Amino acid sequence: MDAVTLPAAAWIEVLTPSREVALRQRVAGPTLTVGRAWDNDLVLDDPHVAAHHLRLTRDADGAWRAEDLGSVNGLFVDDVRVSAPVELAAASVLRIGQTQLRLRTSAEPVPAERPLARGRPAWPLALAGLAATSALTLLELWLAETGEPKLLRYLAPALANAGLLLVWALGWSVLTRVFDGRLRFGLHLLVVCAGVVLYQAWEQLAALGAYALAWTALARTPTVVAWLLFAAVCYAHLRVLGPARLRLKALATAALAVLGITLHSLSESEARTNSGQVATLQRLAPPVLRLAPARSAEAFFGDAATLAAPLDAARSEALEGGEEAGE
Amino acid sequence: MMDRRRGAGAWRGWICAALFAAVPAAAQSLVPPPAPPEGAVSPAAERVYAAARPSLLQVRTLVEAAGRQSSIGSGFLVGADGLAITNYHVVAQYALEPATYRLEYARPDGTQGALRLLAIDVAHDLAVVRLDGAELPYLRFDAAAVAGELPRGERAWAMGNPLDLGFTIVEGTWNGRVERSYDERVHFTGAINPGMSGGPAVGAGGTVVGINVAKRLDGELVSFLVPARHAAALLERARSEAPLDLAEVRTEIGRQLLAWQDGFYSALDAGGLRTSAFGPYRAPESASPWFTCWARTNTEQRPKPRASLDGSSCSSQSTLFVADDIGSGSLEYSHAYARSRDLNAFQFATFVSKYQGSALPGGWSRKRLTAPECREAFVAPADAASAPPLRAVWCARAYRDFAGLYDVALTTVTQDRAGEALVSRLSMQGVSYANALAFGRRFVGAIAWTP
Predict the structure, then answer these.
(1) Can you tell me the distance from the alpha carbon of B222 to that of B192, in angstroms, rounded to the nearest whole number?
(2) From the list A287, A307, A314, which residue is nearest B375 (CB)?
(3) CATH of the domain spanning B254-449, picked from 2.40.10, 3.40.1000, 3.30.70, 2.60.40
């Protein structure tokens, strides 16, 4: 072999279905055979692979070719079935049977080294988040306390809340362990605590804002925000679980949010038409928080007078399956 | 005791004495009859019953398709030509759904036949029906009762067919007009039971003094009669005017309800408002005598409540029966004065929140009422020195069957202090929008403080 034209070193990788590297082996010579038979360079156990299935050959100018050796199931290069020998582009994925392979050569560039940016562990922040959500739970209970304050009435919900978050984070950690090999419990706990703290804060601010601005619709936003935050938290968990297929994860969680909000609004509007409930502000706040200007009684009753028209319109619209329509 | 089909929702503590569907046999308790003392049987009662019995009717509402009775009441003939009086609520099912139901009568001699509905008076719960026949026995109205001159304590006998058991006579005492009631009702101390509604109450002379209509469920022998003069007036109308067009019956009921509430709210206006002190606040109350008010307080609660609550709620008790699932005409208001003992401003706001919910009258039926619409706002008084700023909520819903009628609720909470508040609630049932706005304005305008 000529030392001046030393060919690039090559590696063959066996990939998992999600295209993570399961096995990486250096290619010793200018050819590599793959199959189930023991005389191959790379021996696979895949029952859908022929005894002698695939040969990779390096030609004189260093390019690699793949060739099907006459298998039943064939050879796919980047998901295209090939019958004649074909030259491989860099990082092409080959599929034989149910096994995916990738050939790497030393000519391929590698990304720059990523610095150890996440030096800080997630633990302290996660614990701070857990403390914050517990504190918010206690605060909510205390602001709504009109009877005798009993320690149990405060501790039980706060502990239940914290326990639930820990169990939730643990569940995600177990999943992460299965797919990624690491637990990342601290990070999962941080994610869910952040979501819950944001929700609790929004719930309180929306209630106060609805009163202060005389804008009752604001008091109904927490359910929508809850679904959005739930989807965002799930997305963040999935991201911690693994960086692959982020677009799919984002789409799935967005769909979850849309579905949740749709179902919730439907059930709310059903409740309104079927039980005649009113949607007025349930929770008042101290008068000093009032920001909206007070209107004159004349303006208020003038506004109330305008309700007669929509009510008359509702009166005349027929009920579905109504007695009169049916006869 | 009995399975009443009707009147439950709208009548609160009242029971329409008309109707029932079935009597559970187990509910009857057998009491051995006491031996009658000598001379206890009233010869007057015997005479009255014997004279009135041929004129009595049982009024039955039948499901057209099944031919079975769905509710029963009573009635009585008032003319040889077959005109008879009963209660509106006895014929309401048929009046509102003439395609589903039909009306029949049964007389004590066993004859039966169809009834035609000629006129209704929803406000006084009366109806005029006609059966085919001539030279029928009939009852006359008592002249003294029509003139309103019957003395309190006079003996009277209510007749009808209670619980479908057969025609019955019940002795009681005429107690005159119920004093604290807007609607003219006579308090009759006798047992009026479901099925007797629409039957006559007859005086010693054998003439009709009133019409059985209702009883109180929370008392014993507290029953009510419609004064005879309203029946006489309706009879005049039925004789002189064209009979009721069943296709237009909802329009007619709506017209009567609108006219009734116009009268009620003008009387309310004429009676005027006075104010009562609740802590530093002054709250409006009707000066009209027909409101029944009850006070409430939480000072007796143990452990001691962390905010005190004192209030009163008043009711006009003037609900008119319209149908099983809807009434009209009641007016209620309540005031609750809350004062914090050791709650902070947020906790006190939560405490007050519990008492400021919608005051719309209970019992919503989608078939009868539209979904409510509400408006909420902070309302500043015209004169800040004499009245506090308020948070006001106005909710209204429309009656589907009766144009121009609404249920309206108004709630206000004073917004001047962190640890004290007056919550006022006003609930108007079956009111025109203009009357509701006018009374709501007066109500809110009368909330004041004494700094």
Answers:
(1) 9
(2) A307
(3) 3.40.1000
Task: Compare all CA atoms of chain A with the CA of B301 and give the residue at the minimum distance.
Answer: A147
* CB contact at 8 A, B279 and B339: yes
Consecutive H or E run containing B225: strand B223-227
Q: Say if residue B33's pLDDT is above 60.
A: no
pTM: 0.81
| Type and span of the H or E element at B104 | strand B101-106
Q: State how far the Cα of B351 lies from the Cα of A284, in Å rounded to an integer.
A: 9
Q: Give the separation between CA B154 and CA A228, rounded to whole angstroms.
A: 75
Q: What is the largest CA-CA distance in chain B?
A: 79
d(CA B258, CA B267): 14
Per-residue pLDDT, B451 = 65
One-letter identity of residue A132? A
Q: Which residues pair with B174 in a beta bridge?
A: B188
Domain boundaries, chain B: 9-244, 254-449
What is the pLDDT at residue A318?
66
**CATH architecture type of domain B9-244:** Beta Barrel (2.40)
Beta-bridge partners for B130: B83, B116
d(CA B418, CA A145): 16
Contact A146 B367 (CB under 8 A): no
Angle between helices A123-143 and A185-212 (to 10 degrees): 30
- Distance to chain A for B353, nearest Cα, Å: 5
B 86-105 → A contacts, CB under 8 A: 97, 99
Residue A195 has pLDDT above 90, yes or no: yes
Backbone angles phi, psi at A290, to 5 degrees: -65, 125
- The first and second tokens of residue A129, run together, are 């988040």
A38 pLDDT above the threshold of 90: yes
* Beta bridge pairs of residue A58: A64
The DSSP secondary structure of B162-210, one letter per residue, reads GGGS--EEEEEEEEEE-TT-SS--EEEES---TT-TT-EEE-TTS-EEE
Its ipTM equals: 0.86
pLDDT in tens, A286-309: 999 999 999 999 999 999 999 999
Given a contact cutoff of 8 angstroms between Cβ atoms, the answer to whether B275 and B285 are in contact is yes
Output Rg (C-alpha) for chain B, integer angstroms: 25
Give dist(CA A66, CA A77) in Å, integer: 9
Mean pLDDT over each residue of chain B, to the nearest integer: 88
Question: Residue A259 CB: number of other CB atoms within 10 A?
Answer: 12
Spell B135-148 as b/e; 16+ CB within 10 A means b: ebebbebbebbbee
Q: Chain B, 357-376: which have a CB under 8 Å from a chain A CB?
A: 357-358, 360, 364, 366-367, 369-376
Q: B126, B231 in Cβ contact below 8 A?
A: yes
B358: left (phi over 0), alpha (psi -120 to 50) or beta: beta
Cβ burial of A56 (10 Å; 0-12, 13-18, 19+) is buried
Structure confidence at residue B29 (pLDDT): 43
Q: Of B171, B187, B168, B265, whose CA–CA distance to B225 is shortest?
A: B187
Is A145 near chain B, with CB under 8 Å? Answer: yes
Reported as a single tens digit per residue, the pLDDT across B124-158 is 999 999 999 889 999 999 998 888 888 899 999 99
